[in-house]
TrEMBL record:
EC number annotated for this UniProt entry: 2.1.1.-
Protein name as it appears in the record: Methyltransferase
One BP term from GO: methylation
GO CC, alphabetical: cytoplasm; endomembrane system; membrane
PANTHER family linked to this entry: METHYLTRANSFERASE PMT23-RELATED, SAM-DEPENDENT METHYLTRANSFERASE
Organism field: Brassica napus (Rape)
Domain of life of the source: Eukaryota
Major enzyme class: transferase
InterPro entries: Put_SAM_MeTrfase (IPR004159), SAM-dependent_MTases_sf (IPR029063)
Record gene name: BnaA03g19000D
One Pfam short name: Methyltransf_29
Family that this chain belongs to: Belongs to the methyltransferase superfamily.
Length: 584
């Protein structure tokens, strides 16, 4: 049969098209364009089944992730197990916990990080929704976002939390808050007027915080509270706090020091926090003494303060002896109309009392080391004051935010001033004006390498709070952060954070992730960022273009939206995508 010229042309064009298609899909140099954020905010779609990809896009991607341009395959899988929705790698290491020789000192509630660091993605709870916005979230959150009913039943008589329809509602009650937390906060200030919430007292630590209502209501007083509790039988209490938009972290006073600097907090609070302060030679109370600022206050509201049965009397007698030995002074002791009582102690401002003790027990500690509290054991000694002399209280808030003169870290005043001015300019001119971030949806923020806290200071007038992280491989500036009236923790970013999944709206990093990848894999760091961020949350990165390109590729494999600005800033926005569940 004769073949017409027209048929020949069609065959040639078809062959050419096949060849071009084959080349495009096999070329190592192909770079698929990633979805970009527009300057306008676009709400994320809700999905009835977030564990199944909506577009069936494969979750395996080849990328060049290092200077030698070696191809690395990133394959994302869901974390496994019945509790994977709330997976915290360093607190949920069951194998390590099973091998512990003792649990007497809460060792099973401390960090036990798995090796290698997991790179799986936590699934979303069924019917997860974007969080209730602040300030409404302080009083109510979506039940399906934190579907834990145990605490509702366990604390129903104490008004901690109630379930009402689709919501968990927080009335502001508590074990010691019989007339509500607002009454309790005012009761404290009446007992000791010098406290002056939000002026003299700015940075507070709440031990065994429950659902963090104490810290939540202190926000109205311009007080920032670091609320903490362990991951224990009080199911998801810290997750509730963070879902509410209240600063909180998972921690326990067990065998290791808290991840805060020495002489940091203006005031520490414990309301029936179930800590045996005189245990193990008084180590738990000595740890509070370490992190309490000279001249700072410790408020203890517990039955030994106002009941006189045999058990409570013995505990009170032990507390009297221990506080006297570390020179704490009782400055108030009272009972309110509800029958709830408290005692307020004050830490000394000089070491003269220590030297006058009849016995030097507990002894003074040796000189503090920088970053000393990261995986450091509790000590049976009294932490020294920064210079051994009389310590001055910081200036009243908010003046201390910009006028701080750090006592515990040698910082050049001019360097500090320039850092503050730099971050004020970057945040006001770029972050708030030019980047694709809907700041009205941002409440919980984390600065991955906070330095002096300049980023947080520049955001102080917005309705959000910042957890300032000082990496343990960087200069120890966390004392400066606290001196300014801000909060933060030490952390090693090669490990997972002590926080639940989906607890932050925005993570920020400035010229740090490139250095971090010299220590640990960038994929595992991104997996942790993905774990911590809520769907719809942002990663805001300032770094080199080399680091930005690496991050852009990996975030693309997670189906995040990305946008680069001025070849220096990257904004990534997490979506609802999760890998497809494997068939059983």
């Amino acid at each position: 049969m004769a073949i017409s010229v027209q048929h020949v042309v069609v065959l040639l064009l078809t062959s050419l098209l096949i060849a071009i298609t084959f080349f495009l899909f096999t070329s190592d140099n192909l770079r698929f364009p990633l979805p970009s954020l527009s300057s306008d905010y676009t709400p994320l779609p809700k999905s009835s089944n977030h564990d199944v990809s909506s577009d069936q896009t494969p979750h395996k991607m080849k990328m060049k992730l290092n200077a030698s341009h070696e191809e690395v395959v990133v394959k994302w899988d869901l974390c496994k197990g019945a509790e994977s929705v709330d997976y915290i790698p360093c607190l949920d290491n069951r194998d390590a916990i099973k091998q512990l020789k003792s649990r007497r000192h809460m060792e099973h509630r401390e960090r036990h990080c798995p090796e290698p660091t997991p790179k799986c993605l936590v699934p979303l709870p069924d019917n997860y929704k974007p969080p209730v916005p602040w300030p409404k979230s302080r009083d109510m959150v979506w039940y399906n976002n934190v579907p834990h009913p145990k605490l509702v039943e366990y604390k129903k008589e104490q008004n901690w939390v109630k379930k009402e329809g689709e919501f968990l509602v927080f009335p502001g009650g508590g074990t010691q808050f019989k007339y509500g937390v607002t009454h309790y906060v005012e009761f404290i200030e009446k007992a000791l007027p010098v406290i002056k919430w939000g002026k003299n007292i700015r940075v507070v630590l709440d031990v065994g915080c429950g659902v963090a209502s104490f810290g939540g209501f202190l926000l109205d007083k311009d007080v920032i509270t670091m609320s903490f509790a362990p991951k224990d039988e009080h199911e998801a209490q810290i997750q509730f706090a963070l879902e509410r938009g209240i600063p909180a972290t998972l921690s326990v006073i067990g065998t290791q020091q808290l991840t805060f600097p020495t002489n940091a907090f203006d005031l520490i609070h414990c309301a029936r926090c179930r800590v045996h302060w005189d245990a193990d030679g008084g180590k738990p109370l000595l740890e509070l003494n370490r992190v309490l600022r000279p001249g700072g206050f410790f408020i203890w509201s517990a039955t030994p303060v106002y009941r006189d049965n045999d058990r409570d009397s013995k505990i009170w007698t032990a507390m009297v002896s221990l506080t006297k030995s570390i020179c704490w002074k009782v400055v108030a002791k009272t009972v309110d109309s509800s029958g709830i009582g408290l005692v307020i102690y004050q830490k000394p401002t000089s070491e003269s009392c220590y030297k006058k003790r009849s016995t030097q027990e507990p002894p003074l500690c040796a000189k503090e080391e920088v970053n000393a509290s990261w995986y450091a054991p509790l000590r049976k000694c009294i932490s020294k004051l920064p210079s051994g002399g009389v310590q001055k209280w910081p200036e009243l808030w908010p003046k201390r935010l910009v006028s701080v003169k750090p006592q515990s870290v040698s910082v050049d005043v001019e360097t500090f001033k320039k850092d503050t001015e730099k971050w004020s300019e970057i945040v006001s001119d770029i972050y708030l004006q030019r980047l694709a971030v809907n700041w009205s949806s941002v409440r919980n923020v984390m600065d991955m390498n906070a330095g002096y806290g300049g980023f947080a200071a520049a955001l102080i007038n917005r309705p959000l709070w910042v957890m300032n992280v000082v990496p343990v491989d960087k200069p120890d500036t966390l004392s400066v952060v606290f001196d300014r009236g801000l909060i933060g923790v030490y952390h090693d970013w090669c490990e997972s954070l002590n926080t639940y999944p989906r607890t932050y709206d925005l993570l920020h990093s400035s010229f740090y992730l490139g250095d971090l990848t010299q220590k640990c894999g960038i994929v595992q760091v991104v997996a942790e960022i993905d774990r911590v961020l809520r769907p719809g949350g942002y990663l805001v990165l300032q770094d080199t273009m080399e680091t930005i390109k690496e991050l852009e590729s990996i975030l693309g494999s997670l189906h995040w939206s990305t946008k680069i600005y001025q070849d220096r800033f990257l904004v990534g926005r997490k979506g609802f995508w999760r890998p497809i569940k494997p068939e059983l």
